[in-house]
Amino acid sequence: MKATKAKIKENPRNNIRKIARKLNMDKSAVSMAVRKDSGMKLRAMTKVWGLTANWRQKRLERLRILLRMRILLNEVVSIRQNCLY
Fold first, then answer.
1. Cβ proximity of 34 and 40 under 8 Å
2. Contact, 34 vs 23, CB < 8 A?
3. Which residue ranges make up each domain of the chain?
4. How far, rounded to the nearest angstrom, does the alpha carbon of residue 17 sit from its chain's CA centroid?
5. What secondary structure letter does DSSP report for 33?
6. Threshold 0.70, pTM exceeds
């Protein structure tokens, strides 16, 4: 079971199937070892798309444009409502 702990410490993003394949063990045996011996819980880590500084800037610009459009739309709606009454 020390081998499973070592593999997890080596790369915690590895899933149980990969670790079991590397150690030539059954998947359920590895998962039981992780749960009982290590006291860890099995959680799938989701991959997140990292944003570069350029993408963040573009996103911020689009957000500002959308906010301006929303403010203008709200003003138009309020003007129309005032004209109806």
1. yes
2. no
3. 2-37, 50-85
4. 21
5. I
6. no
